[in-house]
Amino acid sequence: MRKNSLLVSSIGLVAGISSSLGFTQLKRKIKPLTSLPVLYAGNWKYVDGTRNRTHTISISPKLNLTIDDQAIPANVEHINSQELTFVDKFGYRITIQTNQERPVKLIDEADDQAYNIEPL
């Protein structure tokens, strides 16, 4: 009887240690998607046909937005693998859409325009 109780307590001790060290499947933590900013990071260009002008847009890995070398004070409102939406200081949205591989379209709510973007 004593051997059985020693065996049971040993198994309990091993189970407790393994769960404390994170070896069990039950305590698995869900990691946030840190690769989304990398999907949008880069330098892009688009043509504004109404003004006959080519613009550049840069998005940093920290999701800082720059258009034509001017930092745009904006907050990220939404991000997923299909689109990234910024809200600028005036409340207008700037949305970047992807084709699941790279950004392909910029939608500027202030100008009510959509532009195809290409890598620089």
Brief description of this entry?
Helices cover 20% and strands 42% of the residues. It has helices spanning 2-20, 36-40, and strands at 42-48, 53-59, 65-67, 70-72, 74-79, 83-88, 93-98, 103-108, 113-116, 118-119. It has a five-stranded antiparallel beta sheet. It has a five-stranded antiparallel beta sheet with strand order 5-6-7-8-9.
What can you see in these coordinates?
This is DUF4828 domain-containing protein. It holds the Pfam family DUF4828. It comes from Limosilactobacillus gastricus PS3. By secondary structure, this protein is of the alpha+beta class. The chain folds into 2 domains: 1-30; 36-119, Beta Barrel (Lipocalin), CATH 2.40.128. Helices cover 20% and strands 42% of the residues. The protein has 2 helices and 10 strands, in the order H-H-E-E-E-E-E-E-E-E-E-E. The chain has helices at residues 2-20, 36-40; strands at residues 42-48, 53-59, 65-67, 70-72, 74-79, 83-88, 93-98, 103-108, 113-116, 118-119. The strands form 2 sheets. It has a 5-stranded antiparallel sheet. Strand 6 (83-88) and strand 7 (93-98) form a beta hairpin. The longest helix is centred in the first third of the chain and has 19 residues, at 2-20.
Number of domains: 2
CA(first)-CA(last) distance:
76 Å
Radius of gyration, in angstroms, nearest whole number:
25 Å
Assign a percent range to the helix content. 10-25%
SSE order, one letter for each helix or strand: HHEEEEEEEEEE
Q: For the largest beta sheet, what order do the strands appear in spatially?
A: 4-3-2-1-10
